[in-house]
Write a structure and sequence with these properties.
The chain is an all-alpha fold. The protein has one domain. It is 79% helix and 0% strand. The protein contains five helices and no strands. Helix 3 runs antiparallel to helix 4. The longest helix has 24 residues. It starts with a helix and ends with a helix. The mean pLDDT is 96.
């Protein structure tokens, strides 16, 4: 079961990389006012959602302690990110503050995962 958990942690990290990588590749376009949400960002957020839910289930199945408040906060942040990316996925341009908010919330989610113990 530990191998399965580690596999889903790896997939979760790949989802974060896709979301944050998609954001970072659009940084130059943000300066020009032409940034957009890429499909990789949407798929990364969806990957994070699915693998995160699976990780919680696997950890609870093994009676590992799960901080439900932390998971709830991370889920709330991710749902906001996913909602913004999903709604604006077909837009030719996304406003700078909205695009920056997605990047900020993604980084916040990473730091919640790492620093909240």
């Amino acid at each position: 079961m530990d191998v399965l958990i580690h596999m889903f942690v790896g997939l979760h990290i790949i989802g974060i990389a896709a979301l944050l990588g998609g954001f970072l590749t659009q940084m130059k376009a943000t300066g020009q006012g032409a940034a957009r949400f890429t499909p990789a960002m949407l798929h990364g957020a969806l990957t994070m959602l699915v693998t995160g839910a699976v990780l919680v289930g696997l950890n609870q199945a093994q009676d590992h302690p799960v901080d439900n408040v932390k998971i709830g906060v991370k889920l709330a942040v991710l749902v906001v990110v996913l909602g913004l990316v999903y709604v604006k996925r077909d837009a030719e341009k996304v406003e700078k503050p909205l695009f920056g908010l997605v990047g900020l919330l993604t980084v916040v989610n990473v730091f919640i995962a790492v620093l909240w113990t």
